[in-house]
Design brief:
By secondary structure, the protein is mainly α. The protein has a single domain (17-126), classed as Four Helix Bundle (Hemerythrin (Met), subunit A), CATH 1.20.120. The chain is 83% helix and 0% strand. Helix 2 runs antiparallel to helix 6, helix 3 runs antiparallel to helix 4 (68-87) and helix 4 (68-87) runs antiparallel to helix 6 (96-116). The radius of gyration is 15 Å and the shape is globular.
Length: 127
């Protein structure tokens, strides 16, 4: 049984911006864990593709006339990174140094997304 991408899209777009960015953040955190442990290659690859879809779905909903431009730029850059990982997947996954680099980059992207989340920005402004 394949993934029902239409259902996932509908559910994803029902969430608010914070939950959408959090979904990406969690996917990247999972990719980091899987790459670090060199486990569940197919799950890691699925999470990359799912993250690409999340970005494809969220970008058209952004208002580029507001501060969403910084989020849009971040998401476009992340989409490029995810594409590079997929294009070089065999090397990325099988070579220890490349996989460790992917884990480090996934953690960095995850942290950047967490900082861009609307709820995170509100916490920073209150501090």
């Amino acid at each position: 049984m394949g993934m029902n991408w239409d259902l996932l899209k509908a559910l994803y777009l029902q969430g608010d911006r914070a939950s959408q960015l959090n979904s990406l953040h969690l996917n990247l955190a999972h990719i980091q864990i899987l790459a670090t442990g060199h486990t569940d290659e197919l799950v890691a690859l699925h999470l990359i593709r799912e993250s690409q879809y999340f970005i494809e779905w969220i970008v058209p909903t952004l208002d580029l006339k507001t501060d969403d431009i910084s989020i849009a730029t971040l998401l476009v850059d992340l989409q490029r990174q995810l594409s590079r990982w997929k294009l070089e997947w065999e090397k990325q996954w099988e070579e220890k140094e490349a996989r460790e680099n992917m884990a480090t980059q996934a953690e960095q992207w995850s942290n950047r997304l967490q900082q861009q989340s609307p709820s995170s920005r509100e916490l920073y402004q209150q501090a």
